[in-house]
Design brief:
It contains 7 helices and 5 strands, in the order H-E-H-E-H-E-H-E-H-H-H-E. The relative contact order is 0.16.
């Protein structure tokens, strides 16, 4: 976890980014990556600003996860980040793909996932297959909660879960290399 956070920091320093939103699901892996990133980045770029934003860990790994999933919390977080002035355009998701995919959707709804933003991630959030996970289980999720707004088109917008990899086109990834 520490090496991944340090790697994300090195990329951020290399590109000279000074304003970053760090999205941290409440689980040990994400917390470790986030702490490592923040320590390394603030040491190298003391004048930079990192807005660390915590979100409950609400992965969508399997249909039964929908029972404890509250999308409103992700939308509130996305709106909070968007309201910052200046609004961060560099976003780091420190968590696993199962938590990251719904986060990306919430940020996309307000314009913070797409061509105007740069996302950074690590490990399994860095594969097209990983980022398509919710699309792959969408029918199972809909069967558990057919009226849930995440899986039914609404009047203002529709969303394709399969589009998540496209929204993150150009995403920078840190993949650890085993040295043992």
């Amino acid at each position: 976890d520490r090496s991944q956070g340090a790697g994300l920091s090195a990329l951020s320093v290399l590109f000279g980014w000074k304003l970053i939103a760090l999205i941290v699901p409440g689980e040990p892996y994400a917390q470790g990556v986030a702490e490592s990133f923040q320590d390394a980045f603030q040491t190298r770029q003391p004048s930079a600003t990192v807005h660390r934003e915590s979100v409950p860990n609400m992965p969508l790994k399997k249909p039964s996860d929908l029972a404890s999933f509250d999308y409103r919390k992700l939308r509130q977080l996305a709106a909070k980040v968007e309201r910052r002035r200046p609004s961060p355009r560099i976003l780091i998701s420190a968590g696993y793909r199962y938590a990251m995919i719904p986060i990306v959707r919430a940020f996309h709804e307000i314009g913070l996932a797409g061509a105007a933003t740069q996302w950074l991630a690590s490990e399994d959030s860095c594969t097209v297959d990983g980022l398509r996970h919710v699309a792959d289980i969408e029918e199972s999720l809909a069967a558990v909660a057919p009226g849930d707004s995440l899986f039914a088109p609404n009047a203002t917008a529709t969303f394709s879960w399969a589009s998540v990899p496209t929204l993150l086109r150009g995403m920078l990834c840190v993949l650890p290399v085993s040295r043992g």
